[in-house]
Amino acid sequence: MQIEYIKSLFLKHKETSLFNRYITNKDIEPLLGNLSKCAVVEIIGKSVLNDSIYGLKIGNGKKRVLMWSQMHGNESTTTKALFDLLNSLLDDDEKLKYILDACTLYIIPILNPDGAKAYTRINANQVDLNRDAQDLSQPESKVLKSVFKTFKPHFCYNLHGQRTIFSAGSTNKLATVSFLAPAQDEACTITPNRKIAMELIGVMNETLQDVIPNQIGVYDDAFNLNCVGDTFQSENVPTILFEAGHYPNDYERENTRELIYMSYISSLDYISKTDIKGDNFEAYLKIPENDKCFLDVIIRNAKIDETLVDIGIQYQEKLVDNKVEFIPKVVKTQKLEKLFGHREIDASGFEVFNSDGQLLEKDHENVFVILNNEKISLLPK
């Protein structure tokens, strides 16, 4: 499928009512109401705080694809892209009917509605649902496992978001999108169903390389059966972890949203048209592994105690009045030769002060700094 065609689909079908980072049931429920005319929409369970967990099914094909998003409540980019995808697939004017003829999709747009509302990774019981695949101690975990058992997917899409720290290899290239074909045993054996997941990732990587060359990574595949992806892979269902990461100056993740959409479309196109055996898995092995080479802001060559150091700043995401704000926090004061800043400021040997006229200190939050008598905002531009 041509990349320009996928881009045109996105522009036409982007769900404009969903934007920014804070996405909750309140945002998606009107959309689900509209979709109920052309899709099966149902409440499949309740969260710890008794909020609804929704599932929807479209398509009538034999190849079953299970997709779930916001298992971590503060990772919403993949959710936005799911509704862009739904708008595209359900538009009778588009030439995408073949996907729904070949595939049946079951989508859980927000698995962790309590975490989404509080803008936290964990659920209301302070549990990371992605470490609850074996214990199934949480109602949200039980809902996902129940759908997995009843829907019997041939493919699983585990949809997440990653922090701004990740690089594609130990380089100054962002890991704007990352993938993983999770291991299913301690030895991280490349099993037949892992090969199928790897082949699909290779297809998505090829598509994205035309748009963000050298900005795709893969996660370390260390095995942890408590993780959902590892568990589903161990049950011989090809499973893919999607991680929506940072694009330059895109802290709202709207550019990344389009890249995730491209990944959805290209992979579903491939599933629809191909009897995937895993024979072409080796392209996956050439994708660089993620490293942690980035900070949000680095102030270079700052003077502290007559020594030149670099000051590393990472944004802390905080929910304030139903809006996510990015609060700059000093996390490192040392030479950072092997790290890169999404934004870099040269202090040129001057001291750097906070709003109280004190030298910057580690673990302190600072919205702006004073450098050579100039006030400089550290907030995202």
What does this structure look like?
By secondary structure, the chain is an alpha/beta fold. It has two domains: 3-291, 3-Layer(aba) Sandwich (Aminopeptidase), CATH 3.40.630.10; 294-377, Urease, subunit C, domain 1 (Roll), CATH 2.30.40.10. Helix content is 28%, strand content 28%. The chain has nine helices and 17 strands. The chain has an eight-stranded mixed beta sheet with strand order 1-2-4-3-5-9-7-8, with helices on both faces. Strand 16 and strand 17 (374-377) form a beta hairpin. Helix 1 (3-13) packs across helix 3 and helix 1 (3-13) packs across helix 9. The longest helix is centred in the C-terminal third of the chain and has 20 residues, at 254-273. The chain is globular, with a radius of gyration of 22 Å. The mean pLDDT is 97. Pfam families: Peptidase_M14. Residues 14-271 form the Peptidase M14 domain. Belongs to the peptidase M14 family. This is M14 family metallopeptidase. Keywords: Hydrolase, Metalloprotease, Protease, Zinc.
